[in-house]
Amino acid sequence: MDTTLYTSRRTFQEQVLDRLGQEICSGRYTPGAVLPSEAELCERFGISRIVIREAIKSLVAKGMLVVRRKVGTTVLDPNHWNLFDPSIIAWRAHPSVLNQTLSRDLMELRRIVEPAAARLAAQRASDNDRKALRAAYQSMECAIAGDGDYIAADLAFHAILLVACGNQFVRQMQDAMSAILRTSFAIVSLKPGGPAFSLPMHEDLCRAVEAGDAQAAERAALALIDQATNDLNAQLNFG
Q1: How far, in Å, CA of 235 to CA of 239, rounded?
Q2: For the chain, which domains are there?
Q3: Are the CB atoms for 78 and 99 separated by under 8 Å?
Q4: Which of 78, 87, 126, 221 could form a disulfide with 115 if both were Cys (CB 3.0 to 4.6 A apart)?
């Protein structure tokens, strides 16, 4: 029985889902591989078939597995996965799994989405959006001073920016972008002085949105992403 599984208050189904998802993304189960049988998984995790089946159903829905009669539950190629699913992003971007190609692709996605969102936010943000963005920035300031959770405040800052851009399709990407940002922030924040160094860049972005300066907002977003890319590569020893 895998006794390391039960370490949080999440349901057993969520924990099994996370463990199997991580193992597929890490390459323990490669594309074309057949997962152990339900009975074997039940024995491994010490839980019922119902829990195993629900976890498998979730992975099938995410495009990671297919269940075939007389063959079993087979891992699909990543081309079939829902790559924007927040769970899949988190599993693939785990520090033990994250590779240079995935890191590059994630940061390129940020570069494609965030500067444009920042430009639109400067043009379209409501007064409430601007107040929320300023409040998130102030929470980041407090966290650096030792009062609060910096990563949570940083995530809130970027989530508000995506909402403030006023584009329904970008807003739909918020969960996926938050999963990308959470992983990169967690790694980059380990750099000594990293959060404090990036704080003025966040303030530049906040001020540009408040002032309605679209070009300045776009430049500030690009500066943040450039710095985050350099820090991420340095922390992961990517050249």
Answers
A1: 10
A2: 12-80 (1.10.10.10), 86-235 (1.20.120.530)
A3: no
A4: 221
